[in-house]
Amino acid sequence: MTGVGRLWAGAQFFARLPAYLRRPVSFEAAKEALRQRLALRRQRFLDRFRLDVFGQPDSPYHALLRHAGCEWGDVAALVEREGVEATLQALFRAGVYLTIDEFKGRRPARRGSLEIAIQPEMLRAPRASYHLPAASGGTRSSGTPVLIDLEFIRTCAANCAVCLDAWGGRDWVKGDWESPGAGARFRVVKFAGFGALPRAAFSFFDTATLPAYFRWNLKGLHWASRLGGRPLPRTVCVPHSNPAPLLEWLVQVLRGGETPCIFTFSGAAVTACLAARERGYDIAGSVFLISGEPVTAARIRTIASAGCRAIPRYGTVEVGAIGYGCRAGRHPDEVHFLEDMHALIHAGEEGAQAGLPPKALLMTSIHPQSPFVMINLSMGDQAEMGARACGCPLDGAGWRTHLWDIRSFEKLTAAGVTFLGSEVIAVLEEALPARFGGGPTDYQLVESETETGLPVLRLRAHPRLGDLPAREVVDTFAEVLGRSSQSKAMMVRRWLDAGTLQFERAVPAATRAGKIQFLHVEKRPAG
Ligand SMILES: [Zn+2]
């Protein structure tokens, strides 16, 4: 989309916003709409192929399907015979999929003799319009603009309403705390689409530091919502390092006899709960809807120890919500998969052809106005997946499939040693806090280089933990990490001998999108 096209789409979005805000979806209507979408699922899946792939000569998926010798009639017959998921499995085996690197245009998609260079622009859903421009954040993407259709937001709002209703949250006071550029506006507009308006929008960074385009966007949102007589809250800067304004807001809402519900990343929720304990804010009774990073048992425990509740959510800016927390979950991050919006399969043994582990998730978007056409897209995540009659209200709403143990499978290579992310998380979030105090997000591994290009790994501990015995912390880290295999134990020994692994007291760094990741890669010195 050209700059002018984007401006026009943005203008249309703001023109339609007041009407959207004036007609929030009711909780009953949200459940009924979900039932209808589930009933229409197969039809919508077919429409995605018929209209958005076979009807678009330039679609990269069209090229992949042609290369696989698959025409529209074949897909339709397969869906009729085998169903949605089996069709996706068959297409995956035939090479119809994209990895996140191919999707983002970091490398061309190669299937046998076929080579296609893809840009995310080519995958925008043709039936979506009136876009709210948002940028994705995090380490995996380089800020691909995501344009979000108001109709899509309305559906996301309805699904969020179904989730909060299931957790008893019809009257919760909604707020948001995240990076201003990473879909926060989408969240606030979504929250405004059901129940009462959101009352707070907190941002990790000062919005004045945003590019002009985004600042104008925030202003547009503000004015359009005022025109609609349903003003959205102004964004207030609350950095990780000083969450006091957020804590004060939580306390104030609680004192008013209401329950605050804040959407944020799991790491940020943990820092807020730790800060509340340290500074004597009683935020017991608050609810954190958490997403964006692994939701681990340690993180849930820390949030619970502040008397707060955590509802896990799994999603990305490009896709929207993928799953909402099960009330009867057996795992800290167990969510109900939103099968009205997407289809999901495991890569399985055939994943090896695409360099994917068997539990890699392949995502297909079904909603006609979803930001992107995605067919068997690997976003770099893996998870366990299965149907289970949990008996919670989300099961009753029609979402039967559960996801848990959701992790990025992108391996962590630190100073030449490759670890699974889950191994490193276990050490940083469980082993070190158990022995030296603190909680999850208090420890971080920072990879950088010396001036001469030698790798340096710094094991960072939050200064609030006081004077930790550096040697012992490093030794414990190396010892626990080395337990996974003998070869890893040897490599870790080598780090210690070479002085590659060092200890430092510093506040764990956050990414551009405001997530605290367990491995932080510092910019290499220039030159
Ligand atoms: Zn459930």
Into which percentage range does the β-strand content fall? 15-25%
Q: What is the residue-averaged pLDDT? A: 87
Helix content: 25-40%
Q: Which runs of at least 5 residues are low in confidence (pLDDT < 50)? A: 136-143
The ligands bound in this entry are:
zinc ion
Q: Shape from CA axes?
A: globular
Strand order of the largest sheet: 7-6-5-8-9-10-11-12-16-15-14-13
- In total, how many beta strands? 22
CA-based gyration radius: 23 Å
Question: Based on helices, strands and strand pairing, what is the structural class?
Answer: alpha/beta
Q: How many helix segments?
A: 17
Distance between the termini: 35 Å
* Largest sheet report: 12 strands, mixed
Structure in words:
This protein has 17 helices and 22 strands. About 2% of the residues have low confidence. Helix 15 crosses helix 16. It is an alpha/beta fold and 527 residues long. Strand 19 and strand 20 form a beta hairpin. It has a 12-stranded mixed sheet, sandwiched between helices. The protein has a 4-stranded mixed sheet with strand order 21-20-19-22. A two-stranded antiparallel sheet has the order 1-2. The chain is globular and about 65 Å long. Helix content is 38%, strand content 22%. The longest helix is centred in the first third of the chain and has 20 residues. Among the domains are: 228 residues; 110 residues, 2-Layer Sandwich (GMP Synthetase, Chain A, domain 3). The site of zinc ion has 8 residues, from helix 14.
